């Protein structure tokens, strides 16, 4: 009988010793899950994904990540982006893009990229000639329509109305420069 009691006591002690470890491991897992949930998730089929999945917008995709706008354009809010192609970025003066990608110029890069973005879903058919639309950087973008040709601040819009789960993308042949950045590293309009 004594052996049975000793065995039960030993079993209870061993369970008691292991229980805090199990709870600690469970708590650690819960903390990790909380951290994962705190990170914004980029939606499948979002503007961020549409841009990243295209071979024509690799530079834009990298710039969006550097400016931390990939999460914004990958979220739930609806946006319209006039997306500069890789070729459009190549038209910038030599060294300008590299300078914009430096950490100390992050806000200038954000401003440049947000000048290509307007709130909501705006199809080309919704745009009007001589219309000025407010961009996400706060400055106005001028739309010119002549027949089938659409321009955003003199930059020709090539591919229109590419739909994403959270917005619309129109590709443009030039990086559109806001007035606030005209004097930055040769970024003249």
Automatic annotation (TrEMBL):
Pfam families: Fasciclin (PF02469). Residues 44-176 form the FAS1 domain. Keywords: Signal. Residues 1-24 form the signal peptide. SMART domains: FAS1. The keyword Signal applies. SUPFAM superfamilies: FAS1 domain. The keyword Signal applies. It comes from the Bacteria. This is Fasciclin domain-containing protein. It comes from Luteolibacter algae.
């Amino acid at each position: 009988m004594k052996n049975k009691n000793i065995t039960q006591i030993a079993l209870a002690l061993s369970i008691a010793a292991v229980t805090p470890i199990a709870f600690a491991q469970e708590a650690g897992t819960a903390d990790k899950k909380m951290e994962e949930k705190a990170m914004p998730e980029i939606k499948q089929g979002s503007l961020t994904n549409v841009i990243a999945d295209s071979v024509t917008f690799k530079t834009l995709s990298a710039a969006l990540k550097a400016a931390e706008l990939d999460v914004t354009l990958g979220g739930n809010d609806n946006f319209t982006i006039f997306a500069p192609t890789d070729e459009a970025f190549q038209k910038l003066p030599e060294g300008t893009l590299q300078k914009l990608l430096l950490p100390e110029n992050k806000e200038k890069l954000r401003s440049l990229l947000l000048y290509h973005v307007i709130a909501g879903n705006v199809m080309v058919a919704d745009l009007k000639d001589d219309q000025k639309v407010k961009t996400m950087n706060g400055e106005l973008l001028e739309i010119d329509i002549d027949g089938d040709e659409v321009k955003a601040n003199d930059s020709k819009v090539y591919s229109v109305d590419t739909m994403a789960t959270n917005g619309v993308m129109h590709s443009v042949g030039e990086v559109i420069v806001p007035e606030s950045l005209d004097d930055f590293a040769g970024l003249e309009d």
